[in-house]
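Homework help thread (please don't just give me the answer)

Our assignment gives two proteins as sequence + structure token strings and asks us to describe the second one. The first is just a warm-up. Here they are:
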Amino acid sequence: MTSSTPWRWIPTLYVGQGLPYVVVMTLSVVMYKNLGLSNTEIALYTSWLYLPWVIKPLWSPLVDLLGTKRRWIVVMQFVIGASLAGVALTLPGSQAVRLSLAVFWLMAFASATHDIAADGFYLLALDPRRQAAFVGVRSTFYRLAMIAGQGGLVVLAGWLQDRTGQPALAWSFVFGGLALAFVMAAAWHAWALPRPALDRPVPRGGSFWRDAGEVFAAFFRQPGIGRILAFLLLYRFAEAQALKLVTPFLLDSPAAGGLGLKTQDVGIAYGTVGVIALTLGGLLGGWVISIGGLKRLLWPLMVAMHLPNLVFVALAAMQPGSLAWVSAALALEQFGYGFGFTAYMVFMLMVAGQGVHKTAHYALCTGFMALGMMLPGMVAGWLQARLGYLGFFTWVCVATLPSFAAAALVRIDPGFGRREDDGDVSRR
């Protein structure tokens, strides 16, 4: 392996992984709300953008069997940069919504492919000890990308809208800057990424399609695969619905049941304060799992993740006008979510960590995760339009029950996720 400290490439790689996902899943929601789309349209259209992450396992064997993960990463970052430029160019036109959605689809496919390659590269470039040591680092910089996207870029877009009076033009400037940043990131990684000896195409035994089929078959032959899939699909069932309506709730007027925040206020309260709390919760969750193991801590982590949904019920009922109070409430909810979501991440590592097809199997796990986000999210706007914000967030609390049912059925290695006595690596 060419000598390269992980600190040279892990932070930028996971910022590069996080930003396009935030752009497609979160910035698009804020942007379309600013452009005047209804909550039903926003939830439906942007939920469809999950589809590339849902079906990415279909082409994940290509990343394993063709070329190196390093090359896939660099090429996909250039494609993401071009897609961001495409969004910037379409927004000022008369077909802004239709054309920008088409470009977002291209960006989503490139981002999903980049995720496959980046996660696989992480497993190949680091030995197990350093994989465990840097898992918090990669998560932290992924969250920092969320702060930059949901916080800084939303604030910037709001500031530009106030000065130009043209939401489409303001967002066009934001996406143009992002495009330039991604081209620079691709150039950086072409130089900075190491060249691990293990980063080579997985040897094929004959037919490409037969080998690709074996990758999928090995995943579905795992013991208890039905329980595994139920857990992957249902753990985020409630969050999938809430996530699509949080930003519209914050932006809508009090007369419509919302909180009436400005775009830049949403960037501060939800995109900055909230994501910082999310990051801290995630770091704490990883630490407690490393001490107690996933099996022992699964239920406490789930309660910590789902109970703070009551915060949205309280906000919808009281509609506080103070940005400080809203920020504090969102920080509480996001901290609990970040703390509890680590259980889901560690569970996926457990499922994917066996066998020779770790990259493709992790992609399959994240594909089922995306499907579990996509389908409930598609109807969230319709539900909110009929229930109002207070009724909708009350329903979200009820919708946490399927995840507890799935957790009651799943089987977890008692030692998985816990540090060995010498502090080196997690048990597999």
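The one we have to describe:
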Amino acid sequence: MANSCTKNCLQDGEQPAIYYKKRYWTFGIITLMSLIIPWIKINGNHIFLLSFDKKELHLMGVAFDTQEFYLMPFLLMLLFLFVFFITVLGGRVWCGWACPQTIFRVIYRDLIQGALLGMRKRRNKQKEPEGQFVKRAVALVLWSILAFIAASNFTWYFVPPEDYLAYMQNPADHPILVGIIAIITGFLIYDVIKLKEDFCGYICPYVRIQSALYDHDTIYTIYDEKRGGKVFDGDTKLWKKPPNEEDECTGCEACVTVCPTHIDIRKGMQFECINCLECADACSKVMGKLGKKSLINWESNRSYYDSEPTQFFRFKILGYLGVMLAVTIALIIMGSNKETMLLNINKSNKIYTIKDDMVNNDYVFLFTNTDNKAHKFYFEIEGTSGIKILRPKREFTVFPDQKLKKIVVLGTTKKVGTNEKTYTKIPLTIRAYAVDKKKEIFVERNTVFVYPPLSEVK
């Protein structure tokens, strides 16, 4: 089972494994990826972009129109399934190792206040800096700048960064965008400086469901009471250091002072714990000097209480993997069936018009070219109904990502009606296509042609 000691044992002079360094590397990679991904394009489209402005969804370099937003539920299902899966497997590892809230707090507390300004020590997260007003003001300014960058980075997944930079050159012309960024920036400043880890324990909804997902093989942060000794009886703290001679806990409380959520892990599992394993690092350092392994480890109830290997490949885990695989396959299949042109057909307010012996129906065709290059489009009526295209008479060009509205008039001189007193609805199939790729780029839509009562036709 993973713990802070190499091979579960430390010799004099050996250095314990340090979780916080691995977390910092993870934070750096996640931050770098979140900043870079909005700028990456494949065939002119973003890896991920949900643009409400352009009404598009970009996914792995493929642009989908609003009519193809049926993919979004699959993406959301995949996200929630992954979070549930990782919780069942490793407890609140998301909270401690990948959550933006945790990353922001580490940047502000450990990097800005600690490493840059020397206002606090990394090993003491309980004591807030006092006085030092100039340094606190500098920390506020530095975090405000980073909060603005983080807010901008967030909007890049909804407003393409190239558009964002253009909009911000004239912010007065884009008050909604500026307002959204200001609100997000203000919240991040308040959240990181004032709300802090209270967000994790009392506001984040994830904390309310994570304990329900745990099972006997979920790995989480556990204090080894059998070796260290009993410190708490329920919610009552009995003593700082266990009194029995065989109890290995030294009572140094390094695990307490380093905890960012202000808990004592020796009390047992608590909903505030985010599995950051800072306490495991602290205990490893203290116990390592005594040539002993850490009293705080990342393990499961099965490993700790039953002394049996944790069953990572169990039914629940395989079930989540199976469902995620099924959703991913469905997403790939549906995404690969993307239409490179879209067509909406709406009937005009006039049901029909009669001029001489010609019966006409008016329609509004909305063409959308979702390909990355321009095409000339036209359409035809399938079947032999005797109904002809009167307008438009020629093909027309639709540019990439353009929506083009066309007034279409269909007419016939044949008496295709069947009723003397009421109008007749004649089903039609419209086949629209790109002239240069008639067999590759096409779409079919059904509509109706309304023919008047035969008594109205000469």
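TA reply:
I won't write it for you, but here's a hint about the kind of observation we're looking for: The chain has 14 helices and 18 strands.
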